[in-house]
Specification:
The complex is a heterodimer of chains A (about 325) and B (about 325).
Chain A lengths: L1 H25 L34 H7 L2 H27 L3 H14 L3 H9 L6 H28 L2 H8 L4 H37 L11 H8 L8 H25 L8 H8 L21 H13 L3
Helix pairs in contact in A: 1-3, 1-10, 3-4, 3-6, 3-8, 4-6, 5-6, 6-8, 7-8, 7-12, 8-9, 8-10, 9-10
Chain B lengths: L1 H26 L3 H9 L5 H11 L5 H13 L13 H36 L4 H15 L2 H15 L19 H31 L2 H8 L4 H39 L4 H10 L3 H29 L5 H11 L1
Helix pairs in contact in B: 1-12, 2-3, 5-6, 5-8, 5-10, 6-8, 7-8, 7-10, 8-10, 10-11, 10-12, 11-12
Classes of the chains: A mainly alpha (about 325), B mainly alpha (about 325).
């Protein structure tokens, strides 16, 4: 009974999220007027031919909104994929390394993870103004420390387990150990972490657009649409409201979806979000990856090795 | 403790160096661009060459970085290429305003997050906790600029309660215009409150199940007194660290909020410099903001180390003696 009641708004939000992503990706293909051509006076009220009215330069607000989402979603997606690849590569090897310079890398990474993401994004992207790729690179770099840390911590928990030590001791290459013994066992954490990074990346990309980074002025971008039309929001709210509502749906829908997919039953809602946002490195206050992975699924090779080791061991 | 502080200090300095390098090499325009920008479009080749010589643009990038960093350490951040003013002078005139803005927000968040976090953490799992958790999740999920824009549209444009733009004469300090501070501070508070509340709540939940608190409950302590005298001291260390991370994050938020309200602070100046491709200004202000964030995190770590009961054996014994 209560489940059904709580599931309903969640389902609506998921449907709205899918619709928003669809609008974002397919928007530029819709048969709408040009998003950069002036069709009327600034801030004309909504009418039948122009459902959202016109924006601050008299351009069609609906067309601009439809064109403003694709870059944002693709940027965030690319940054997430790129960050996952690099984060997994660095994180697993740093987590396996006992002592040595790689542990030092994790230390610095810990510190960097606490720096304000938006400031660092701005500073990295500032060198190449007007470039969407620069924003993409900046967002990737900013989210990397989080990825490296989560993957590194998950790997370090496995590194002490018997089957990993056995594999290393009998001379398996590090790469083989990472591939066969580590990766299958941290897959769920890696997916959860990538989901959180995608949420953060959409926020950062939207905010970058708001601050005027990325493709220059005539290009539409939900973040920038909110900013450039905020002046006229008192008289004509639609040019601001439409992209803002889409962004709100995107943000809330994504975090609800991530929360539902990643948090085990019984954890208070949004704990993982906080570990993302709080990013405390040192006191284990918000260990994002949850509990140690002892009871986790092991790869077949790992399981065989473990059985063999237990049979052979004196203990 | 001294060792702890030293390690942290060294780490902070190393990170400052790393960040300054990232900042310098990512914003440093190609040499030709910089010379062209200074010389203007119709300069001759020899004029350009002379400017390159004067600006040291023919030196290797590493040499220029070291020179820049050395100058920055002595307080010389170069000149703005747009207005020609020294960057340090702009920084000095804006810094105080930003400190007022962020400081007010941090103070408000600290109080509110402590109250909400204690209330939710001591009643974990009940209705109030669940409601509060929904609100904080929503606040965390929304990008700051949406919340800030929402405030402007509703409270400034529609209701007309507060000014939508917080620009005041250059000589004035922000204290003289409290009405212009209301909306920016509120926007920052809403941006950071969700994270801070959840961090405090997590710390409180972690402490609330400990034997010390159980003992206090068995001794008949409850309500505000339990929260204030027993839970809060024990939860203070992780709580303070959480607040430090949040306060550093507000420096990022201030970029958005100051830009939206046109508030004369470091953040809006930096965003403007990025728009106008004012390299020296971006580097100088960026360095100042990154340094401030590192300093806040460092102080937060130190305070947490000092407050951590477990790192003080004497305090442990005293506490045990007091209970028996």
């Amino acid at each position: 009974m209560r489940r059904a009641k709580r599931a309903m708004p969640g389902r609506l939000l998921t449907a709205a999220l899918l619709l928003t992503v669809l609008v974002a990706l397919a928007g530029p293909w819709l048969p709408l007027p040009s998003p950069t051509e002036r069709v009327g006076m600034p801030f004309e009220p909504a009418s039948w031919s122009r459902p959202f009215g016109t924006d601050m330069l008299g351009r069609d607000a609906l067309a601009r909104t439809a064109h403003g989402g694709r870059t944002l979603v693709l940027q965030a997606l690319a940054a997430t994929v790129l960050g996952s690849v690099v984060g997994l590569a660095v994180g697993t090897f740093a987590g396996l390394a006992r002592g040595g310079p790689l542990k030092g890398v994790l230390r610095v990474v810990d510190g960097l993870a606490a720096m304000p993401a938006l400031l660092i994004t701005l500073l990295i992207a500032a060198g190449r103004p007007g470039s969407d790729v620069a924003v993409l690179v900046a967002v990737t770099l900013v989210s990397l420390p989080f990825s490296v840390r989560v993957v590194g911590a998950a790997t370090a928990r496995l590194a002490d387990l018997a089957y990993v030590r056995t594999a290393l001791a009998r001379g398996d290459s590090r790469f083989a150990v990472v591939r066969h013994d580590i990766l299958p066992n941290i897959a769920s954490e890696a997916w959860a972490e990538a989901g959180l990074r995608f949420i953060a990346a959409t926020q950062l990309c939207a905010t970058a657009g708001f601050l005027g980074l990325g493709a220059p002025a005539p290009a539409a971008n939900w973040g920038r649409l909110v900013r450039e039309n905020a002046v006229g929001a008192g008289t004509q709210p639609w040019p601001v409201l439409a992209p803002a509502l889409l962004l709100v749906t995107l943000a809330l829908g994504l975090s609800l979806a991530a929360d539902r997919l990643t948090s085990p039953a019984g954890r208070p809602r949004g704990d993982r979000l906080v570990s993302r946002a709080g990013r405390l490195g040192t006191h284990g206050l918000t260990s994002p990856a949850g509990r140690p992975g002892r009871g986790r699924l092991m790869s077949a090779a790992g399981r065989l090795r473990k059985v063999g080791r237990e049979r052979n061991s004196a203990r | 403790m001294i060792r702890f502080g030293l390690t942290r200090g060294v780490t902070a300095v190393a990170m400052m160096l790393l960040l300054s390098a990232v900042l310098f090499f990512s914003t440093e325009a190609l040499p030709g661009d910089a010379a062209g920008a200074v010389a203007g479009a119709d300069a001759t080749d020899s004029e350009r060459a002379e400017i390159r010589e004067r600006l040291g643009l023919d030196d290797p990038a590493v040499t220029r970085y070291v020179t820049w960093l050395g100058d920055a350490l002595t307080g010389d951040l170069g000149r703005s290429s747009a207005a020609g003013r020294p960057v340090a002078e702009v920084l000095a005139s804006r810094f105080g305003n930003s400190v007022v803005l962020v400081g007010l927000a941090v103070a408000a968040i600290a109080v509110l997050a402590t109250v909400f976090g204690l209330a939710a953490g001591l009643r974990a799992g009940r209705l109030g906790d669940r409601l509060l958790s929904s609100v904080t999740v929503t606040l965390i999920a929304l990008p700051e600029f949406l919340v800030a824009t929402g405030l402007v549209v509703v409270l400034a444009h529609q209701a007309g309660l507060f000014p939508a733009v917080s620009t005041f004469p250059p000589g004035d300090s922000s204290w003289q215009h409290p009405d212009m501070l209301v909306l920016p501070v509120t926007a920052l508070v809403l941006g950071g409150l969700g994270v801070a509340t959840r961090l405090v709540r997590a710390a409180v939940v972690g402490v609330a199940g400990s034997p010390a608190i159980e003992q206090a409950r068995l001794n008949g302590e409850s309500g505000v007194r339990l929260a204030w005298s027993y839970v809060l001291p024990a939860a203070a260390a992780p709580g303070i660290q959480g607040l430090a991370v949040m306060a550093a994050g507000l420096l990022g938020g201030s970029l958005v909020v100051e830009t939206l309200f046109n508030y004369p602070g470091v953040g809006s100046e930096l965003a403007r410099a990025v728009t106008y491709r004012d390299v020296a200004m971006v580097q100088g202000l960026g360095l100042a903001l990154a340094g401030s964030a590192l300093l806040i995190l460092f102080v937060g770590d130190l305070l947490a180390g000092l407050l951590n009961v477990r790192s003080r054996p004497g305090a442990w014994r005293r506490a045990e003696g007091g209970v028996s």
